[in-house]
């Protein structure tokens, strides 16, 4: 298959050998599961259970409000013991309402799950989309964007479905293992997705550092002529949606647009598997495969965990921290784009693809030096931006200029920070700038709305004043007229009574 | 009689047209600077700057009688824009943005007097006479007018907590390498 060149990128040490050979194991049901209401991009889900309620596996715990959101289901049977504010698995550690579910160890499936869709390939695409929405499936690659919305991209008439098995982040091997062990399920899921999207071609893109996954997927794809497995070069950030699209189709996504605008829909391999579960068995998304790795852990593993499992339980399952020492940094996701975790007392959510315990030696933290204008960041930027210039603007709080220089097109891959010989926190500047610009946009929208409210109030006040003045004038005129007319007898004023 | 009426009418018409022409040609245009400044201000007429509304504040800014940092809800961002438009250098390093706040009415103290609702410039307070009032949080811009006017001190100002959707990374603080010369 013809591949296309993708500009920029870096080649970090992949360090996947720690877990690449470890088959996926299932975690024994933990003592407690903590399910935050916001595990996905968009609005938090809305509670439908209360404390003390007994639930079965797959029961709805929180429903999705309209707009971008996803519902949350019970990962096992048990009792909702509490609903309380708890730290999110997010660098800020902001507390959010969390459902505490104590498993009863029976693991009984709910009786009111929707029926399996027997033959998904003759089913109405809308039915499949609804099922995915019901199942609360989000992109399992890490961004956790509700997948049902991507099924709505059918209206843009895409012609290619790209299944993202690049897994370009170092350390992570969960997608690799899924493809090796569940190749048939992934391909079945992908074909269901393709049917729902009205797409006739499926490309499964896998980086060449996963030969076992490529072999397994090629074998499973044999029977289906529409599925092609594309081994792609090892190059970070190949797993970025837009860059992957460019690599396998040659189509470049314009700034501020979606890959669907160039006819391509991209889904993660884990998502394909979850879609299959929802469609073929009527099961919601209640567990996921994650990688536990890093030199700070006694042993690395690929584990299928129920959502809501506490990170501390997972670390314990992996034999604890190496030599009992807390790692230098605890990261959720990969080392390039992952986010630090605020503590061990946070749960695994839908978007968690890995937990890394990194030691000081693995991180290479160095003090920042001055920019020497070497241009390394410019040559590695996969988005064709000029990181050194943007960082300069942001350092001096010139966010408008940074925006003009394209900071909003930055995908935060971190290649620039990785390559910078002066260890300038470039991507950190861009993350700040993007967040700040979004906040400013939101504030501006609020301010505009308030302005409208103020204007509406002033107009109303003016109208009231006028009406009052007119009424007074009319009353005065009536009085005058009454005074001019000779009155035979003074009429009694009727008194208002209760 | 006719002569008197005619001459008075003629004088009236002449003077009137002179005045009309003068009004057109010698008109004092409103200061364009003032309009620009008004556009930069939030326009919510909250009065926290000490002026009645954004209009008088813009006028004071144009006259140079008010500092560019006057707008409390606008914060640093608005101050920077005002300074840029006025062409003045403003030292904003020590300027701390006021934390956004919103009003909350304590229902056990509210007597339903409507004074706060009448003061509110954005109609963010709903209520009727002798009914407990309530603040629509999304519409409240924290101007504190209701806070000052409430006779029973039922209004309190609360901090707007950052949620997961609003949170963003802070600007990186540099640990710079010391270079020896």
Structure annotation, total helices of chain A: 14
Rg on CA atoms of chain B, Å: 26 Å
Strand order in the largest sheet of chain A: 1-14-13-17-15-16
- Unreliable stretches covering 5 or more consecutive residues of chain A: none
Greatest interface by residues involved: A-B, 34 and 27 residues
Largest sheet of chain B: 2 strands, antiparallel
CATH class of the domain at 24-30 and 116-289 in chain A: Alpha Beta
Query: How does the overall form of chain A come out from the CA principal axes?
Result: globular
What is the tally of beta strands of chain A?
Answer: 17
**Distance from first to last alpha carbon of chain B:** 103 Å
CATH architectural label of the domain at 101-159 in chain B: 2-Layer Sandwich
Task: Label the structural class of chain B.
Answer: mainly alpha
- Based on CA atoms alone, the radius of gyration of chain A comes out at 29 Å
Low-confidence stretches of chain B: none
| Percent in strands of chain A | 15-25%
- Percentage of β-strand residues of chain B: 5-15%
CATH topology descriptor of the domain at 101-159 in chain B: Alpha-Beta Plaits
Task: Write structural notes for this entry.
The complex is a heterodimer of chains A (498) and B (181). Chain A is of the alpha/beta class and 498 residues long. Among the domains of chain A are: 24-30 and 116-289, Rossmann fold (3-Layer(aba) Sandwich), CATH 3.40.50.11540; 372-466, no CATH class. Helices cover 33% and strands 17% of the residues of chain A. Chain A has 14 helices and 17 strands. Chain A has helices at residues 125-134, 147-151, 174-181, 183-197, 211-221, 241-249, 269-281, 311-317, 360-363, 376-380, 387-395, 399-404, 415-419, 426-484; strands at 24-26, 33-36, 46-47, 54-55, 60-63, 72-73, 78-87, 95-103, 160-165, 201-207, 227-232, 264-268, 287-293, 301-306, 329-332, 339-340, 354-358. Chain A has a six-stranded mixed sheet with strand order 1-14-13-17-15-16. A four-stranded antiparallel sheet of chain A has the order 2-8-7-4, with no helix packed on it. In chain A, strand 13 and strand 14 form a beta hairpin. Chain B has 181 residues and is mainly alpha-helical. Chain B is 36% helix and 8% strand. In chain B, the strands form two sheets. Chain B has a two-stranded antiparallel sheet with strand order 1-4. The longest helix of chain B has 24 residues, at 2-25. Chain B is flat. Chain A binds chain B through residues 38, 88, 90-92, 94, 96, 367-370, 394, 425, 428-429, 431-432, 434-436, 438-440, 442, 446-447, 449-451, 453-454, 456-458, and chain B through 42-45, 77, 121-124, 138-139, 141, 162-164, 166-172, 174-177, 179.
